[in-house]
Amino acid sequence: MDRIQAICTLIPPCDVLVDVGCDHGLVSLYAIQNCAKEVIASDVSAGSLKKAQQLLEGYKNVSFVVSDGFDNVEREVDVAVISGMGGRKILEIISRLTYKPTLILGAQHNVYELRQYLVENGWNIEKDFCFFDRGKYYDFIRAVPGKSETPTHVHLSFGIYYKQKNEHLLSFLLDQKRKISGYKLTESNLQRLALIEEVLKWQV
User: Fold this and answer.
1) Which residue, 35, 64, 44, is CA-closest to 52?
2) Predicted confidence band at 189 (pLDDT cuts at 50, 70, 90)?
3) How far apart are CA 194 and CA 125, in angstroms?
4) Is 102 exposed, middle or buried (0-12, 13-18, 19+ CB in 10 A)?
5) What mean pLDDT is predicted for residues 72-94?
6) 92: which residues sit within 8 A by CB, 6+ positions away?
7) Residue 142 in contact with residue 126, Cβ under 8 Å?
8) What is the Cα–Cα distance from 41 to 19, expressed in whole angstroms?
């Protein structure tokens, strides 16, 4: 399973889905074939959107829009997929929403801030896992409208469900521990190591 397949496992059956930053359109293709009655493929780049148009040519109930996030998506959707970018960019996009769809998110970094924003702004994180593909670690999240329990620093750092065994998370933790152990052990690095050790208790 690659990262595209991994994020697609989080998409629930829905009426209307928007694939924000759709690029090649593979997530949109999966959605229209498997779980969404209608798909809006959106990308800030007209060139990237053209790739999705070519892939999805002939599919009914798929529309295309050049848009920065939701800015030019002129209707409300049930599910929004936002993947392939940093957590801060995703946060910036969803902070402009005026309603709350189910969010399927794939962040490459700055996931602490993203998780914190979600739980403080009316979303409940019901899926949250680390995934490794082609040399990079990703955090995939499904968040639905609702109230979350107050997360700890560990939850925000390594995932709401860090106690569930995950070989990708274990690999990430061991890699981080090795790197930090080679640095000067500042107070910040010692705190980070302590968090890693706490999560490792559940992963080994």
Assistant:
1) 64
2) very high
3) 24
4) buried
5) 95
6) 69
7) yes
8) 5
pLDDT for residue 1? 85
Please count the residues of the chain.
204
Q: Where are the alpha helices (DSSP H) in 73-127?
A: 87-94, 111-120
Question: Do residues 128 and 116 lie in contact, with contact meaning Cβ atoms separated by under 8 Å?
Answer: no
The structure's pTM equals: 0.94
Query: Rounded to 5 degrees, what are φ and ψ at 22?
Result: -65, -25
Instruction: Provide the residue ranges of all domains of the chain, joining segments of one domain with +.
Output: 3-154, 163-204
pLDDT in tens, 96-125: 999 999 999 999 899 999 999 999 999 999
Asked if pLDDT for residue 185 goes beyond 90, the answer is: no
Strands 14-20 and 79-85: parallel
Q: What does the pLDDT average to over 56-63?
A: 94
77, 55 in Cβ contact below 8 A? no
Sign of CA dihedral 192, 127, 132, 39: negative
Write down the CATH number for the domain with range 3-154: 3.40.50.150
Outline where the chain has alpha helix (H): 3-8, 26-34, 46-55, 87-94, 111-120, 153-158, 167-181, 187-203
Residue type, 95: S
